[in-house]
Fold FAD-binding FR-type domain-containing protein.
Amino acid sequence: MDEAGTSWARDLLRTSLRYAKSPPSPDDVVVTDFTDDPEKVEYVRILIYHILHGRDIVACYNVVLLVVLLGFTARHFIKKRRDQQRWKARTQALPFSEQAAKSASSSSSSTLQGTPSPPDSTKLDVDLEQQPLLASTARPCPRSLRDITRAWLMYQPRPIPFINRTLPPNETSLFVLAYIALNVFFQFFQSPLEPKYFFAFADRIGYVFIVNLPLLYLLAAKNQPLGFLTGYSYESLNIFHRRVGELMCFAALAHTVTFVIWQAWCCPDWLLVGNLWDFLMDQRNLIGMGSLVAYELLYATSLASFRARCYELFLASHVILQVVAPAFLYLHFFTSRPYVLASLAIFLVDRIVWRLSLKSETFTADLEVLEDEQTLLLSARWSIPYQSNYPLCSWLRQSIRRGWKPMDHVFITIPSLGRTHSLQTHPFTIASAAPRLRGALDMETPQHAWLSLLIRARDGFTRDLLQYSLSHSRVPVRIDGPYGSAEALDMLRACESRILIAGGSGIAVVFPLAWALAQHPPPDGARSRRRDIHLLWVVHSRSHLSWLPQERLDELAEVGIQVTMPGPTAEAGRPDIAGYISEMSTRAQMRQQELGVVVSGPDNLNRVARNACARGVEGGAKIRLSVEKFGW
Protein backbone atom coordinates (compact mmCIF):
# COMPACT_ATOMS: atom_id res chain seq x y z
CA MET A 1 0.00 0.00 0.00
CA ASP A 2 1.72 3.23 -1.13
CA GLU A 3 1.92 6.45 0.86
CA ALA A 4 -0.42 8.44 -1.40
CA GLY A 5 -3.05 5.71 -1.38
CA THR A 6 -3.16 5.53 2.41
CA SER A 7 -2.67 9.13 3.47
CA TRP A 8 -6.42 9.82 3.57
CA ALA A 9 -7.05 6.61 5.49
CA ARG A 10 -4.32 7.46 8.00
CA ASP A 11 -5.88 10.87 8.51
CA LEU A 12 -9.28 9.23 8.90
CA LEU A 13 -7.89 6.86 11.50
CA ARG A 14 -6.32 9.70 13.42
CA THR A 15 -9.51 11.75 13.23
CA SER A 16 -11.60 8.84 14.52
CA LEU A 17 -9.26 8.54 17.48
CA ARG A 18 -9.81 12.15 18.53
CA TYR A 19 -12.39 12.68 21.24
CA ALA A 20 -13.13 16.40 21.06
CA LYS A 21 -16.78 17.44 21.62
CA SER A 22 -16.74 19.52 18.44
CA PRO A 23 -15.88 18.34 14.92
CA PRO A 24 -12.13 18.59 14.22
CA SER A 25 -10.74 21.21 11.92
CA PRO A 26 -8.24 20.28 9.22
CA ASP A 27 -5.43 21.48 11.50
CA ASP A 28 -6.52 19.06 14.21
CA VAL A 29 -5.95 15.96 12.11
CA VAL A 30 -2.30 15.67 13.08
CA VAL A 31 -2.19 14.51 16.70
CA THR A 32 1.38 13.40 17.20
CA ASP A 33 4.21 13.00 14.77
CA PHE A 34 5.21 9.35 14.49
CA THR A 35 6.49 9.39 10.90
CA ASP A 36 10.08 9.21 12.15
CA ASP A 37 9.38 5.90 13.92
CA PRO A 38 9.33 3.05 11.36
CA GLU A 39 7.59 0.65 13.76
CA LYS A 40 4.72 3.06 14.37
CA VAL A 41 4.37 3.79 10.66
CA GLU A 42 4.26 0.06 9.92
CA TYR A 43 1.67 -0.47 12.66
CA VAL A 44 -0.60 2.23 11.21
CA ARG A 45 -0.15 0.82 7.72
CA ILE A 46 -1.15 -2.70 8.82
CA LEU A 47 -4.09 -1.41 10.86
CA ILE A 48 -5.40 0.59 7.91
CA TYR A 49 -4.98 -2.44 5.66
CA HIS A 50 -7.05 -4.62 8.02
CA ILE A 51 -9.78 -1.97 8.20
CA LEU A 52 -10.08 -1.55 4.43
CA HIS A 53 -9.63 -5.25 3.68
CA GLY A 54 -12.35 -6.13 6.19
CA ARG A 55 -14.75 -3.69 4.55
CA ASP A 56 -14.00 -5.16 1.12
CA ILE A 57 -14.78 -8.65 2.43
CA VAL A 58 -18.04 -7.68 4.14
CA ALA A 59 -19.13 -5.73 1.05
CA CYS A 60 -19.52 -9.13 -0.68
CA TYR A 61 -22.13 -10.19 1.88
CA ASN A 62 -25.16 -9.06 -0.11
CA VAL A 63 -23.77 -10.75 -3.22
CA VAL A 64 -23.86 -14.04 -1.31
CA LEU A 65 -27.44 -13.32 -0.21
CA LEU A 66 -28.38 -12.66 -3.83
CA VAL A 67 -26.94 -16.03 -4.89
CA VAL A 68 -28.95 -17.75 -2.13
CA LEU A 69 -32.08 -15.90 -3.25
CA LEU A 70 -31.55 -17.04 -6.84
CA GLY A 71 -31.37 -20.63 -5.60
CA PHE A 72 -34.66 -20.32 -3.71
CA THR A 73 -36.23 -18.59 -6.71
CA ALA A 74 -35.27 -21.40 -9.07
CA ARG A 75 -36.58 -23.98 -6.59
CA HIS A 76 -39.87 -22.10 -6.19
CA PHE A 77 -40.64 -21.73 -9.89
CA ILE A 78 -39.66 -25.32 -10.67
CA LYS A 79 -41.97 -26.59 -7.92
CA LYS A 80 -44.75 -24.21 -8.93
CA ARG A 81 -44.60 -25.31 -12.54
CA ARG A 82 -44.62 -28.96 -11.53
CA ASP A 83 -47.64 -28.44 -9.26
CA GLN A 84 -49.56 -26.64 -11.99
CA GLN A 85 -48.79 -29.39 -14.49
CA ARG A 86 -49.90 -32.10 -12.06
CA TRP A 87 -53.13 -30.27 -11.26
CA LYS A 88 -53.91 -29.71 -14.92
CA ALA A 89 -53.15 -33.35 -15.75
CA ARG A 90 -55.44 -34.61 -12.98
CA THR A 91 -58.30 -32.26 -13.78
CA GLN A 92 -58.22 -33.25 -17.44
CA ALA A 93 -58.77 -36.88 -16.51
CA LEU A 94 -62.12 -38.58 -16.89
CA PRO A 95 -64.86 -36.23 -15.58
CA PHE A 96 -67.38 -37.07 -12.89
CA SER A 97 -70.40 -39.04 -13.89
CA GLU A 98 -73.61 -37.52 -12.62
CA GLN A 99 -74.35 -40.58 -10.49
CA ALA A 100 -70.87 -40.55 -8.92
CA ALA A 101 -71.15 -36.87 -8.09
CA LYS A 102 -74.58 -37.41 -6.55
CA SER A 103 -73.32 -40.37 -4.52
CA ALA A 104 -70.33 -38.45 -3.21
CA SER A 105 -72.55 -35.53 -2.26
CA SER A 106 -75.01 -37.75 -0.41
CA SER A 107 -72.32 -39.60 1.49
CA SER A 108 -70.49 -36.45 2.49
CA SER A 109 -73.45 -34.38 3.57
CA SER A 110 -74.58 -37.12 5.94
CA THR A 111 -71.94 -35.97 8.39
CA LEU A 112 -73.79 -32.69 8.87
CA GLN A 113 -77.46 -33.15 8.07
CA GLY A 114 -79.50 -33.58 11.22
CA THR A 115 -76.57 -32.65 13.47
CA PRO A 116 -76.44 -28.86 13.71
CA SER A 117 -74.24 -29.16 16.81
CA PRO A 118 -71.10 -31.31 16.87
CA PRO A 119 -71.22 -34.86 18.22
CA ASP A 120 -70.15 -35.48 21.81
CA SER A 121 -67.49 -37.98 20.88
CA THR A 122 -63.97 -36.87 20.09
CA LYS A 123 -63.23 -39.97 18.03
CA LEU A 124 -62.32 -39.10 14.47
CA ASP A 125 -63.39 -41.82 12.06
CA VAL A 126 -61.86 -42.03 8.64
CA ASP A 127 -64.53 -42.37 5.95
CA LEU A 128 -64.75 -46.15 5.62
CA GLU A 129 -67.05 -45.93 2.60
CA GLN A 130 -64.09 -44.91 0.48
CA GLN A 131 -61.86 -47.75 1.73
CA PRO A 132 -61.36 -50.59 -0.80
CA LEU A 133 -62.99 -53.92 0.07
CA LEU A 134 -59.79 -55.77 -0.72
CA ALA A 135 -56.46 -54.68 0.63
CA SER A 136 -54.31 -52.80 -1.82
CA THR A 137 -51.44 -54.72 -3.34
CA ALA A 138 -49.26 -51.64 -2.98
CA ARG A 139 -46.80 -51.85 -0.11
CA PRO A 140 -45.47 -48.91 1.87
CA CYS A 141 -42.14 -47.76 0.55
CA PRO A 142 -39.17 -48.62 2.76
CA ARG A 143 -37.66 -45.78 4.73
CA SER A 144 -34.88 -43.93 2.97
CA LEU A 145 -32.31 -41.41 4.13
CA ARG A 146 -34.24 -38.76 2.20
CA ASP A 147 -37.45 -39.57 4.11
CA ILE A 148 -35.66 -39.50 7.46
CA THR A 149 -34.05 -36.16 6.61
CA ARG A 150 -37.35 -34.62 5.45
CA ALA A 151 -39.07 -35.87 8.60
CA TRP A 152 -36.39 -34.35 10.83
CA LEU A 153 -36.61 -31.02 9.02
CA MET A 154 -40.42 -31.04 9.34
CA TYR A 155 -40.37 -31.91 13.06
CA GLN A 156 -41.09 -29.15 15.58
CA PRO A 157 -39.55 -29.52 19.08
CA ARG A 158 -41.50 -28.90 22.26
CA PRO A 159 -41.58 -25.37 23.70
CA ILE A 160 -38.67 -24.40 25.93
CA PRO A 161 -39.55 -25.30 29.56
CA PHE A 162 -40.16 -22.64 32.21
CA ILE A 163 -40.29 -19.73 29.72
CA ASN A 164 -42.71 -21.68 27.44
CA ARG A 165 -41.11 -20.25 24.30
CA THR A 166 -42.40 -21.85 21.11
CA LEU A 167 -39.64 -23.17 18.87
CA PRO A 168 -39.92 -23.23 15.07
CA PRO A 169 -39.58 -26.45 13.05
CA ASN A 170 -36.08 -27.81 12.57
CA GLU A 171 -35.86 -26.61 8.96
CA THR A 172 -36.46 -23.02 10.06
CA SER A 173 -33.98 -23.30 12.93
CA LEU A 174 -31.38 -24.75 10.56
CA PHE A 175 -31.85 -21.88 8.12
CA VAL A 176 -31.51 -19.32 10.93
CA LEU A 177 -28.34 -21.03 12.15
CA ALA A 178 -26.95 -20.94 8.61
CA TYR A 179 -27.70 -17.21 8.45
CA ILE A 180 -25.92 -16.61 11.76
CA ALA A 181 -22.98 -18.74 10.62
CA LEU A 182 -22.70 -16.67 7.44
CA ASN A 183 -22.45 -13.48 9.48
CA VAL A 184 -19.91 -15.04 11.84
CA PHE A 185 -17.85 -16.07 8.82
CA PHE A 186 -17.82 -12.55 7.40
CA GLN A 187 -16.89 -11.18 10.82
CA PHE A 188 -13.93 -13.50 11.45
CA PHE A 189 -12.63 -14.30 7.96
CA GLN A 190 -9.09 -12.86 7.75
CA SER A 191 -9.91 -10.62 10.70
CA PRO A 192 -6.99 -9.75 13.00
CA LEU A 193 -7.53 -11.01 16.54
CA GLU A 194 -4.44 -9.47 18.14
CA PRO A 195 -5.39 -6.88 20.77
CA LYS A 196 -3.33 -4.18 19.09
CA TYR A 197 -5.51 -4.48 15.94
CA PHE A 198 -8.80 -4.64 17.85
CA PHE A 199 -9.88 -1.38 16.20
CA ALA A 200 -10.21 -3.22 12.86
CA PHE A 201 -12.21 -6.03 14.52
CA ALA A 202 -14.61 -3.52 16.11
CA ASP A 203 -14.94 -1.62 12.83
CA ARG A 204 -15.89 -4.81 10.99
CA ILE A 205 -18.68 -5.55 13.48
CA GLY A 206 -20.19 -2.19 12.60
CA TYR A 207 -19.90 -2.97 8.91
CA VAL A 208 -21.61 -6.34 9.39
CA PHE A 209 -24.44 -4.40 11.02
CA ILE A 210 -24.94 -1.93 8.19
CA VAL A 211 -24.82 -4.50 5.34
CA ASN A 212 -27.76 -6.28 7.01
CA LEU A 213 -29.83 -3.10 7.17
CA PRO A 214 -31.48 -3.33 3.70
CA LEU A 215 -32.34 -6.99 4.35
CA LEU A 216 -34.04 -6.04 7.63
CA TYR A 217 -36.24 -3.44 5.94
CA LEU A 218 -36.94 -5.67 2.94
CA LEU A 219 -38.21 -8.48 5.17
CA ALA A 220 -40.39 -5.99 7.06
CA ALA A 221 -42.01 -4.56 3.93
CA LYS A 222 -45.51 -5.76 3.08
CA ASN A 223 -44.93 -5.20 -0.64
CA GLN A 224 -41.62 -6.74 -1.58
CA PRO A 225 -40.32 -9.00 -4.34
CA LEU A 226 -39.33 -11.87 -2.04
CA GLY A 227 -42.88 -13.22 -1.98
CA PHE A 228 -43.02 -13.43 -5.77
CA LEU A 229 -39.51 -14.87 -6.03
CA THR A 230 -39.72 -17.47 -3.25
CA GLY A 231 -43.44 -18.13 -2.83
CA TYR A 232 -43.30 -17.16 0.85
CA SER A 233 -45.53 -14.24 1.81
CA TYR A 234 -44.10 -11.51 3.99
CA GLU A 235 -45.82 -12.84 7.14
CA SER A 236 -44.12 -16.21 6.60
CA LEU A 237 -40.81 -14.36 6.35
CA ASN A 238 -41.52 -12.37 9.51
CA ILE A 239 -39.66 -14.86 11.68
CA PHE A 240 -36.50 -14.18 9.65
CA HIS A 241 -37.12 -10.44 9.95
CA ARG A 242 -37.08 -10.84 13.73
CA ARG A 243 -33.93 -12.99 13.71
CA VAL A 244 -32.13 -10.47 11.46
CA GLY A 245 -33.16 -7.68 13.82
CA GLU A 246 -31.91 -9.61 16.85
CA LEU A 247 -28.55 -10.28 15.23
CA MET A 248 -28.22 -6.62 14.26
CA CYS A 249 -29.03 -5.45 17.78
CA PHE A 250 -26.37 -7.80 19.12
CA ALA A 251 -23.90 -6.53 16.52
CA ALA A 252 -24.63 -2.90 17.41
CA LEU A 253 -24.04 -3.61 21.09
CA ALA A 254 -20.88 -5.58 20.31
CA HIS A 255 -19.64 -2.76 18.08
CA THR A 256 -20.00 -0.29 20.96
CA VAL A 257 -18.43 -2.58 23.58
CA THR A 258 -15.45 -3.52 21.41
CA PHE A 259 -14.64 0.12 20.69
CA VAL A 260 -14.78 0.85 24.43
CA ILE A 261 -12.40 -2.08 25.00
CA TRP A 262 -10.09 -0.70 22.31
CA GLN A 263 -10.05 2.72 23.93
CA ALA A 264 -9.61 1.44 27.48
CA TRP A 265 -7.06 -1.36 27.03
CA CYS A 266 -5.86 -1.99 23.47
CA CYS A 267 -5.06 1.38 21.89
CA PRO A 268 -1.34 2.29 21.96
CA ASP A 269 -0.59 5.17 24.28
CA TRP A 270 0.95 7.24 21.51
CA LEU A 271 -2.38 7.21 19.62
CA LEU A 272 -4.52 8.16 22.61
CA VAL A 273 -5.92 11.66 22.88
CA GLY A 274 -8.08 12.09 25.94
CA ASN A 275 -9.57 9.53 28.33
CA LEU A 276 -12.54 7.15 28.15
CA TRP A 277 -15.02 9.89 29.05
CA ASP A 278 -13.72 12.04 26.20
CA PHE A 279 -14.21 9.07 23.90
CA LEU A 280 -17.83 8.58 24.98
CA MET A 281 -18.63 12.29 24.71
CA ASP A 282 -17.28 12.64 21.18
CA GLN A 283 -20.02 13.95 18.87
CA ARG A 284 -19.76 11.03 16.45
CA ASN A 285 -19.90 8.50 19.26
CA LEU A 286 -22.87 10.21 20.89
CA ILE A 287 -24.75 9.98 17.60
CA GLY A 288 -23.76 6.33 17.34
CA MET A 289 -25.07 5.65 20.84
CA GLY A 290 -28.31 7.36 19.87
CA SER A 291 -28.64 4.88 17.02
CA LEU A 292 -27.78 2.03 19.40
CA VAL A 293 -30.51 3.06 21.86
CA ALA A 294 -33.07 3.37 19.04
CA TYR A 295 -32.34 -0.11 17.68
CA GLU A 296 -32.33 -1.69 21.14
CA LEU A 297 -35.72 -0.09 21.80
CA LEU A 298 -36.92 -1.54 18.50
CA TYR A 299 -35.86 -4.97 19.72
CA ALA A 300 -37.43 -4.58 23.17
CA THR A 301 -40.78 -3.39 21.81
CA SER A 302 -40.80 -6.22 19.24
CA LEU A 303 -40.72 -9.02 21.80
CA ALA A 304 -43.75 -11.32 21.63
CA SER A 305 -44.72 -10.57 25.24
CA PHE A 306 -44.68 -6.82 24.56
CA ARG A 307 -46.63 -7.17 21.30
CA ALA A 308 -49.30 -9.25 23.03
CA ARG A 309 -49.81 -6.72 25.82
CA CYS A 310 -49.23 -3.42 24.01
CA TYR A 311 -49.83 -4.04 20.32
CA GLU A 312 -50.81 -0.44 19.59
CA LEU A 313 -47.64 0.87 21.26
CA PHE A 314 -45.62 -1.70 19.32
CA LEU A 315 -47.07 -0.41 16.05
CA ALA A 316 -46.43 3.25 16.84
CA SER A 317 -42.92 2.74 18.18
CA HIS A 318 -41.97 0.50 15.28
CA VAL A 319 -42.88 3.11 12.69
CA ILE A 320 -41.19 5.98 14.53
CA LEU A 321 -38.01 4.11 15.46
CA GLN A 322 -37.64 2.69 11.94
CA VAL A 323 -37.05 6.30 10.83
CA VAL A 324 -35.17 7.65 13.85
CA ALA A 325 -32.61 4.84 14.12
CA PRO A 326 -31.37 5.05 10.49
CA ALA A 327 -31.21 8.85 10.77
CA PHE A 328 -28.76 8.55 13.66
CA LEU A 329 -26.85 5.87 11.76
CA TYR A 330 -26.60 8.10 8.69
CA LEU A 331 -24.96 10.82 10.76
CA HIS A 332 -22.78 8.39 12.70
CA PHE A 333 -20.42 7.38 9.90
CA PHE A 334 -20.25 7.97 6.16
CA THR A 335 -19.80 4.30 5.17
CA SER A 336 -23.32 3.54 6.37
CA ARG A 337 -25.03 6.11 4.17
CA PRO A 338 -25.63 4.05 0.97
CA TYR A 339 -27.19 1.27 3.06
CA VAL A 340 -29.28 3.70 5.09
CA LEU A 341 -30.61 5.40 1.96
CA ALA A 342 -31.48 2.03 0.40
CA SER A 343 -33.32 0.98 3.56
CA LEU A 344 -35.26 4.23 3.82
CA ALA A 345 -36.21 3.94 0.15
CA ILE A 346 -37.67 0.48 0.83
CA PHE A 347 -39.55 1.83 3.86
CA LEU A 348 -40.98 4.87 2.07
CA VAL A 349 -42.02 2.99 -1.07
CA ASP A 350 -43.76 0.32 0.98
CA ARG A 351 -45.46 2.61 3.48
CA ILE A 352 -46.34 5.67 1.45
CA VAL A 353 -46.26 5.05 -2.28
CA TRP A 354 -47.70 1.54 -2.37
CA ARG A 355 -49.72 0.87 0.76
CA LEU A 356 -51.36 4.28 1.14
CA SER A 357 -51.71 5.22 -2.52
CA LEU A 358 -52.24 1.98 -4.43
CA LYS A 359 -53.50 -0.72 -2.04
CA SER A 360 -55.73 1.23 0.32
CA GLU A 361 -59.52 1.38 -0.16
CA THR A 362 -62.35 2.70 2.01
CA PHE A 363 -65.69 0.90 2.48
CA THR A 364 -68.71 1.06 4.74
CA ALA A 365 -68.82 -2.27 6.58
CA ASP A 366 -71.50 -4.07 8.59
CA LEU A 367 -70.82 -5.12 12.19
CA GLU A 368 -72.41 -8.16 13.83
CA VAL A 369 -71.68 -9.50 17.32
CA LEU A 370 -71.73 -13.32 17.25
CA GLU A 371 -73.21 -15.78 19.71
CA ASP A 372 -70.25 -15.96 22.10
CA GLU A 373 -70.43 -12.15 22.57
CA GLN A 374 -66.64 -11.95 22.31
CA THR A 375 -66.38 -12.21 18.53
CA LEU A 376 -67.74 -9.96 15.83
CA LEU A 377 -68.11 -10.28 12.09
CA LEU A 378 -67.08 -7.30 9.97
CA SER A 379 -68.39 -7.63 6.42
CA ALA A 380 -68.55 -5.52 3.28
CA ARG A 381 -69.99 -6.05 -0.20
CA TRP A 382 -69.16 -4.40 -3.50
CA SER A 383 -68.98 -4.99 -7.23
CA ILE A 384 -65.56 -5.82 -8.61
CA PRO A 385 -64.63 -3.17 -11.19
CA TYR A 386 -63.68 -3.90 -14.76
CA GLN A 387 -60.30 -5.61 -15.04
CA SER A 388 -57.92 -4.04 -17.54
CA ASN A 389 -56.45 -6.21 -20.27
CA TYR A 390 -53.11 -4.51 -19.71
CA PRO A 391 -50.98 -6.47 -17.18
CA LEU A 392 -49.18 -3.36 -15.92
CA CYS A 393 -52.46 -1.60 -15.09
CA SER A 394 -53.76 -4.68 -13.29
CA TRP A 395 -50.51 -5.02 -11.36
CA LEU A 396 -50.63 -1.40 -10.21
CA ARG A 397 -54.23 -1.77 -9.01
CA GLN A 398 -53.84 -4.68 -6.61
CA SER A 399 -56.27 -3.36 -4.02
CA ILE A 400 -58.93 -5.35 -2.20
CA ARG A 401 -61.60 -3.82 -4.44
CA ARG A 402 -60.38 -6.06 -7.25
CA GLY A 403 -60.67 -9.26 -5.25
CA TRP A 404 -58.37 -11.53 -3.29
CA LYS A 405 -57.12 -15.11 -3.06
CA PRO A 406 -57.82 -17.79 -0.45
CA MET A 407 -55.78 -17.31 2.76
CA ASP A 408 -55.15 -13.63 2.00
CA HIS A 409 -55.29 -11.11 4.83
CA VAL A 410 -55.79 -7.36 5.07
CA PHE A 411 -54.95 -4.50 7.41
CA ILE A 412 -57.87 -2.42 8.59
CA THR A 413 -58.11 1.08 10.06
CA ILE A 414 -61.29 2.43 11.66
CA PRO A 415 -61.06 6.19 12.30
CA SER A 416 -64.47 6.22 14.02
CA LEU A 417 -62.91 4.58 17.09
CA GLY A 418 -60.90 7.70 17.86
CA ARG A 419 -57.80 9.63 16.91
CA THR A 420 -55.42 6.97 18.21
CA HIS A 421 -56.97 4.17 16.18
CA SER A 422 -57.12 6.32 13.04
CA LEU A 423 -53.33 5.98 12.71
CA GLN A 424 -53.20 2.24 13.36
CA THR A 425 -53.57 -0.76 11.08
CA HIS A 426 -54.47 -4.22 12.33
CA PRO A 427 -54.16 -7.51 10.40
CA PHE A 428 -57.02 -9.99 9.91
CA THR A 429 -57.40 -13.03 7.69
CA ILE A 430 -60.26 -12.86 5.17
CA ALA A 431 -62.75 -15.46 6.37
CA SER A 432 -64.99 -15.45 3.29
CA ALA A 433 -64.48 -17.28 0.02
CA ALA A 434 -62.44 -15.50 -2.62
CA PRO A 435 -64.44 -14.16 -5.58
CA ARG A 436 -64.10 -15.99 -8.87
CA LEU A 437 -62.06 -13.84 -11.26
CA ARG A 438 -62.02 -14.63 -14.97
CA GLY A 439 -59.52 -12.11 -16.25
CA ALA A 440 -61.08 -9.26 -18.20
CA LEU A 441 -64.69 -8.89 -17.06
CA ASP A 442 -67.70 -7.60 -18.91
CA MET A 443 -68.49 -4.12 -17.61
CA GLU A 444 -72.22 -4.80 -17.95
CA THR A 445 -72.12 -7.91 -15.72
CA PRO A 446 -69.60 -7.15 -12.96
CA GLN A 447 -68.53 -9.73 -10.40
CA HIS A 448 -69.55 -9.24 -6.78
CA ALA A 449 -67.33 -9.59 -3.72
CA TRP A 450 -68.39 -10.32 -0.15
CA LEU A 451 -65.61 -9.84 2.37
CA SER A 452 -65.92 -10.91 5.99
CA LEU A 453 -63.41 -10.67 8.83
CA LEU A 454 -63.70 -12.73 12.00
CA ILE A 455 -62.48 -10.51 14.86
CA ARG A 456 -62.06 -11.86 18.39
CA ALA A 457 -62.09 -9.17 21.06
CA ARG A 458 -59.06 -9.08 23.32
CA ASP A 459 -57.59 -5.74 24.41
CA GLY A 460 -57.05 -2.38 22.77
CA PHE A 461 -58.39 -2.05 19.24
CA THR A 462 -60.46 -5.25 19.12
CA ARG A 463 -62.08 -4.55 22.50
CA ASP A 464 -62.91 -0.98 21.47
CA LEU A 465 -64.37 -2.23 18.19
CA LEU A 466 -66.55 -4.74 20.02
CA GLN A 467 -67.89 -2.02 22.31
CA TYR A 468 -68.49 0.22 19.30
CA SER A 469 -70.44 -2.54 17.52
CA LEU A 470 -72.88 -2.81 20.44
CA SER A 471 -74.29 0.59 19.49
CA HIS A 472 -73.43 0.79 15.78
CA SER A 473 -74.29 -1.64 13.01
CA ARG A 474 -72.16 0.02 10.31
CA VAL A 475 -68.77 1.71 10.27
CA PRO A 476 -66.41 3.24 7.66
CA VAL A 477 -63.25 1.14 7.37
CA ARG A 478 -60.04 1.64 5.43
CA ILE A 479 -58.66 -1.64 4.11
CA ASP A 480 -55.04 -2.12 3.06
CA GLY A 481 -54.40 -5.27 1.07
CA PRO A 482 -54.76 -8.01 0.18
CA TYR A 483 -51.56 -9.78 1.20
CA GLY A 484 -50.75 -13.46 1.11
CA SER A 485 -49.47 -16.35 -0.96
CA ALA A 486 -51.11 -18.98 -3.14
CA GLU A 487 -48.51 -21.63 -2.25
CA ALA A 488 -50.83 -23.67 -0.02
CA LEU A 489 -53.62 -23.70 -2.60
CA ASP A 490 -51.24 -24.74 -5.39
CA MET A 491 -49.88 -27.49 -3.16
CA LEU A 492 -53.33 -28.85 -2.34
CA ARG A 493 -54.41 -28.81 -5.97
CA ALA A 494 -51.35 -30.85 -6.93
CA CYS A 495 -52.01 -33.55 -4.30
CA GLU A 496 -54.43 -36.44 -4.78
CA SER A 497 -55.61 -36.46 -1.16
CA ARG A 498 -56.14 -33.32 0.94
CA ILE A 499 -56.67 -32.62 4.66
CA LEU A 500 -57.57 -29.19 6.03
CA ILE A 501 -57.47 -28.83 9.82
CA ALA A 502 -58.76 -25.74 11.62
CA GLY A 503 -58.54 -24.95 15.31
CA GLY A 504 -61.04 -22.33 16.48
CA SER A 505 -60.85 -19.18 14.38
CA GLY A 506 -58.40 -20.98 12.09
CA ILE A 507 -61.52 -21.78 10.09
CA ALA A 508 -61.06 -18.30 8.60
CA VAL A 509 -57.99 -19.70 6.82
CA VAL A 510 -59.22 -23.20 6.06
CA PHE A 511 -62.74 -22.48 4.79
CA PRO A 512 -61.68 -20.25 1.84
CA LEU A 513 -59.18 -22.94 0.84
CA ALA A 514 -61.81 -25.68 0.94
CA TRP A 515 -64.22 -23.49 -1.00
CA ALA A 516 -61.59 -22.78 -3.65
CA LEU A 517 -60.83 -26.48 -4.04
CA ALA A 518 -64.53 -27.28 -4.43
CA GLN A 519 -65.81 -24.31 -6.42
CA HIS A 520 -62.87 -23.20 -8.53
CA PRO A 521 -62.18 -25.71 -11.29
CA PRO A 522 -59.30 -24.98 -13.68
CA PRO A 523 -59.86 -22.44 -16.47
CA ASP A 524 -60.71 -25.13 -19.03
CA GLY A 525 -63.70 -26.20 -16.92
CA ALA A 526 -62.61 -29.81 -16.48
CA ARG A 527 -63.52 -31.49 -13.22
CA SER A 528 -61.53 -33.85 -11.05
CA ARG A 529 -62.19 -37.56 -11.30
CA ARG A 530 -62.09 -37.88 -7.49
CA ARG A 531 -62.65 -35.28 -4.78
CA ASP A 532 -60.65 -36.59 -1.81
CA ILE A 533 -60.86 -33.55 0.48
CA HIS A 534 -61.33 -33.70 4.25
CA LEU A 535 -62.04 -30.72 6.50
CA LEU A 536 -61.69 -31.04 10.27
CA TRP A 537 -62.81 -28.16 12.49
CA VAL A 538 -62.02 -28.25 16.22
CA VAL A 539 -63.75 -25.67 18.44
CA HIS A 540 -63.47 -24.95 22.15
CA SER A 541 -67.14 -24.07 22.75
CA ARG A 542 -70.42 -24.73 20.96
CA SER A 543 -70.97 -20.99 20.67
CA HIS A 544 -67.92 -20.80 18.39
CA LEU A 545 -69.85 -22.65 15.71
CA SER A 546 -71.58 -19.36 14.93
CA TRP A 547 -68.31 -18.12 13.45
CA LEU A 548 -69.16 -19.93 10.21
CA PRO A 549 -72.78 -20.26 9.05
CA GLN A 550 -74.01 -23.85 8.95
CA GLU A 551 -75.16 -23.44 5.35
CA ARG A 552 -71.56 -22.80 4.27
CA LEU A 553 -70.51 -26.16 5.70
CA ASP A 554 -73.53 -27.82 4.10
CA GLU A 555 -72.51 -26.42 0.73
CA LEU A 556 -69.02 -27.89 1.14
CA ALA A 557 -70.51 -31.26 1.97
CA GLU A 558 -72.85 -31.11 -1.03
CA VAL A 559 -69.90 -30.88 -3.42
CA GLY A 560 -68.14 -33.90 -1.94
CA ILE A 561 -65.93 -32.51 0.83
CA GLN A 562 -65.83 -34.73 3.94
CA VAL A 563 -66.58 -32.38 6.88
CA THR A 564 -65.84 -33.55 10.44
CA MET A 565 -66.54 -31.60 13.64
CA PRO A 566 -65.63 -33.42 16.87
CA GLY A 567 -67.16 -32.39 20.18
CA PRO A 568 -66.06 -29.06 21.66
CA THR A 569 -62.82 -29.43 23.59
CA ALA A 570 -64.39 -27.76 26.66
CA GLU A 571 -66.82 -30.70 26.89
CA ALA A 572 -65.06 -33.69 25.34
CA GLY A 573 -61.36 -32.88 25.53
CA ARG A 574 -58.90 -32.60 22.69
CA PRO A 575 -59.40 -34.91 19.70
CA ASP A 576 -56.71 -37.29 18.51
CA ILE A 577 -55.34 -35.16 15.67
CA ALA A 578 -52.16 -37.23 15.40
CA GLY A 579 -54.13 -40.47 15.04
CA TYR A 580 -56.41 -38.89 12.43
CA ILE A 581 -53.47 -37.76 10.31
CA SER A 582 -51.75 -41.12 10.77
CA GLU A 583 -54.79 -43.03 9.44
CA MET A 584 -55.23 -40.68 6.52
CA SER A 585 -51.54 -40.80 5.59
CA THR A 586 -51.53 -44.60 5.79
CA ARG A 587 -54.52 -44.75 3.45
CA ALA A 588 -52.89 -42.33 1.01
CA GLN A 589 -49.65 -44.33 1.19
CA MET A 590 -51.44 -47.59 0.38
CA ARG A 591 -53.07 -45.88 -2.61
CA GLN A 592 -49.71 -44.44 -3.62
CA GLN A 593 -51.13 -40.93 -3.35
CA GLU A 594 -49.51 -37.72 -2.23
CA LEU A 595 -51.22 -36.21 0.80
CA GLY A 596 -51.47 -32.43 1.21
CA VAL A 597 -52.12 -31.08 4.71
CA VAL A 598 -52.97 -27.51 5.71
CA VAL A 599 -53.42 -26.69 9.39
CA SER A 600 -54.32 -23.39 11.04
CA GLY A 601 -54.85 -23.02 14.74
CA PRO A 602 -53.15 -22.53 18.10
CA ASP A 603 -49.47 -23.38 18.49
CA ASN A 604 -50.11 -26.72 20.18
CA LEU A 605 -52.49 -27.92 17.46
CA ASN A 606 -50.05 -26.84 14.77
CA ARG A 607 -47.17 -28.68 16.45
CA VAL A 608 -49.18 -31.89 16.93
CA ALA A 609 -50.27 -31.88 13.27
CA ARG A 610 -46.78 -31.05 12.03
CA ASN A 611 -45.12 -33.82 14.02
CA ALA A 612 -47.78 -36.33 12.95
CA CYS A 613 -46.95 -35.47 9.34
CA ALA A 614 -43.24 -35.82 10.14
CA ARG A 615 -43.82 -39.34 11.46
CA GLY A 616 -45.74 -40.19 8.31
CA VAL A 617 -42.92 -38.90 6.11
CA GLU A 618 -40.41 -40.91 8.14
CA GLY A 619 -42.54 -43.98 7.47
CA GLY A 620 -42.36 -43.43 3.72
CA ALA A 621 -45.60 -41.51 3.09
CA LYS A 622 -45.62 -38.66 0.58
CA ILE A 623 -46.87 -35.72 2.63
CA ARG A 624 -46.69 -32.00 1.94
CA LEU A 625 -47.52 -29.63 4.77
CA SER A 626 -48.44 -25.97 5.13
CA VAL A 627 -48.93 -24.47 8.61
CA GLU A 628 -50.66 -21.12 9.04
CA LYS A 629 -49.72 -19.78 12.45
CA PHE A 630 -51.81 -17.47 14.61
CA GLY A 631 -50.28 -14.21 15.75
CA TRP A 632 -48.16 -11.41 14.33
Observations:
- Residues 457 and 530 are 40 Å apart (CA to CA).
- The longest strand covers residues 360-369.
- The two ends are 52 Å apart (CA to CA).
